[in-house]
Amino acid sequence: MKFIFVLSMLCLASGAVVKAAEVLRPRGVPLSKASFYDPTRDFNCLDGSGTIPFAYVNDDYCDCQDGSDEPGTSACPNGFFYCTNVGHSPLNIPSSRVNDGVCDCCDASDEYASVSNCVDTCRELGRAAREEAAKQQEERLKGFQMRQSMIEEGRKRKKEAEVKMDELKKEREEAEAARNDKEEIKKLVEEPEKEALEKYNAIEQERKAKADAEQKAKEEAEAREAFAHLDNDGDGILTVAELQSRQTFDTNRDGEVTAEEAKFYLRQEETMDLETFLVSGWPMMRPTYKMDQRMFVPPTTEAPAEALTPPPVPGSEGKDEGDMEEDDGIEDYDLPEDDDVEDIPKEEEEEEIDQKYDEETQKLVDAANKAREDFDEADRRVRDLTRELRSLEETQEKDYGPEEEFRVMDGDCYEYTDREYTYRLCPFDKAVQKPKSGHGEIRLGQWGEWSGPEEDKYSRMKYTSGQTCWNGPARSADVHIYCGVETKLTGVSEPNRCEYLFEMTTPAVCTKPEDISGDEGTPHGHTEL
Ligand code: MAN
Q1: Distance (Å, whole) CA 449 – CA 59
Q2: What is the DSSP letter of 398?
Q3: b/e burial code for range 343-372 (CB count within 10 A of at least 16 → b)
Q4: Is residue 334's pLDDT more than 60?
Q5: CA triple 10-106-39, angle to 5 deg
Q6: What are the residues facing 480 on neighbouring strands?
Q7: pLDDT > 90: percent of the chain
Q8: What is the DSSP string of 417-449?
Q9: For 123, which DSSP code?
Q10: Rg of the chain over CA atoms, in angstroms?
């Protein structure tokens, strides 16, 4: 203790202790506190915890609770040693690091009594730091100047949007007037069209009812004819035996019409009268009956009526004429082809598609169609203009910063790729994530709001309501914005699952740098020589 005290005194006397602007002070004391250390008086601990003779300062024994009596030794656990670091930035280090063999101060002052070979590197380090600071300063200045252009451009675009909106409003008014005119015309020509169509449809319905009745009558006549044809003995009753005499009803094509096969067509009865036949027998028989007629190929040689018939070859078209009655076997299949039932709905369908009105009605329909098209076009124009106007209004409502400096970013997108994903940020619109392997994009969020702290609101953006995380919340992204000469993403991370952090630089947030020119000292703008 004595030794240190003596050393300390010696140093003071020799002026080897810290010398700054000719102010002598004990080792480890900053210039700002030099006045508290007056060698001609007792020392008052800086926290007021006691008063000690000045000789106890830096005597390597801790007297004050705050360690203020031992700034230059490691005696107090909570004291601070101040390195002057001439040529670079001053530094406060915990006094416990004094003479611990590690160079903490660039001027090596913390290791004055250790065996370490600390040398003063402050000048070199200071120069490098000043160069770096100057470079940053220059960047900031450049960024700040670029910000001015962004502001100018932003304001210009705002003006342009306002002008455009005025134009669109005017255009829309005109378009609305045109649409109203077209609507009037449409109403005018639709009235006579409606009347004509009503008249036309009434006539048409009548015609159709007549055609339907005719068709029904024709079908009934056909049924009656078939009944007469099947009713061999003409007694007005169809019997099992009569149907058995018709090869047509050989359902299983085994060459024989069994009683069961015949009864199937008689609805399991022994007989069927004309009335029942028309209602339910004919609809059942008709397809078989008519198909056989169509498949019939007239025989080239006449077969004897009573000849025994060989069983038909399955799938063979040939009908066993032997089973038909000699006198009517051929005419049985002789009904005209165009009677085919399948043709009827087809004709009706075509008629509906190519509906042709009479000339007068057609003229009115054409005129109304034209008026409707004209109205639709005019209406579309109004809606297109409204949409365009709405989208511009939305843009105008967005907060592009106090000086419109962020407006130029709207419409641009910026990308950042890491090992797994490519991230894309489209400011004022959305943030997305695209896996490098695989397809599809994951929406991380839609533009939400500025979310920086109150005094620096425009330093952060928030994008919310992205795709929902599996078993979790909707994805969201925060964008932290820093000053830089280029608008770009410098990093993206996911600090919490499905919460993303985008880091971006842009001149838009570069403030005017403080003037450090002509200052030889530290980047903080003050020097201690
Ligand atoms: C995807 C990505 C990841 C996210 C998981 C959550 O893989 O969006 O960023 O963490 O989904 O399941």
Answers
A1: 60
A2: S
A3: eeeeeeeeeeeeeebeeebeebbebbeebb
A4: no
A5: 25
A6: 460, 503
A7: 75
A8: E-SSEEEEEETTTEEEEEESSSS--EEEEEEEE
A9: H
A10: 53
Residue type at 303 in one-letter notation: A
**3-class SS of residue 397:** helix
Q: What is the pLDDT of residue 322?
A: 39
Q: Residue 148 is inside which H or E element, if any?
A: helix 122-230
Specify the DSSP element, H or E, that contains 166. helix 122-230
486 Cα: distance to centroid of ligand 1 (angstroms): 29
223: tokens are: 């049924």
| CA separation for the pair 340, 294 (Å, rounded) | 9
Q: β-pairing, 91-94 with 237-239? A: unpaired
Contact of 438 with 421, CB cutoff 8 Å = no
Nearest to 108 by CA among 7, 27, 2, 38: 27
Q: Which two tokens stand for residue 198?
A: 């009503």
Q: Whole-prediction pTM value?
A: 0.60
Token couple for 67: 């360690």
Model confidence at 292: pLDDT above 80: no
**Cα–Cα–Cα angle for 277, 281, 284, nearest 5°?**
155
Ligand 1, atom 2, residue with closest C-alpha: 498
Q: Per-residue pLDDT tens for 153-184?
A: 999 999 999 999 999 999 999 999 999 999 99
Residue with tokens 């309501």: 465
Q: Which residues line ligand 1 (CB under 6 A)?
A: 433, 442, 469-470, 494, 497-498
Structure tokens at 246: 């018709």
Q: Which residue has the tokens 């024709």?
A: 218
| Sequence-ordered list of residues with C-beta below 8 angstroms from that of 24, at least 6 positions apart, any chain | 12, 15, 17, 18, 34
Q: For the residues of 202-235, what is the DSSP string, one character each?
A: HHHHHHHHHHHHHHHHHHHHHHHHHHHHH-TT-S
User: In Å, how far are 40, 41, 68, 79 from 47, measured between CA atoms?
Assistant: 20, 17, 8, 12
Ligand 1 site-directed mutation target among 497, 499, 500, 501, most atoms within 8 Å of CB: 497
Query: Helix 122-230 and helix 359-397: axis angle, to 10°?
Result: 160
Q: How far is the CA of 431 from the centre of ligand 1 (A)?
A: 14
423 CA distance to ligand 1 middle (Å): 12
Mutate which of 421, 422, 442 for ligand 1 pocket (most atoms within 8 A of beta carbon): 442
Mean pLDDT of 231-257: 93
DSSP state of 517: T
Asked if residue 90 lies in contact with residue 109, where contact means CB atoms within 8 angstroms, the answer is no
Residue type, 193: E
Burial of 416 (0-12, 13-18, 19+ CB in 10 A): middle
Angle, CA 365 vertex, CA 360 and CA 370 arms, to 5°? 130
- 54 touches 94 (CB < 8 A): no
How far is 447 from 412, CA to CA, in rounded Å?
A: 13
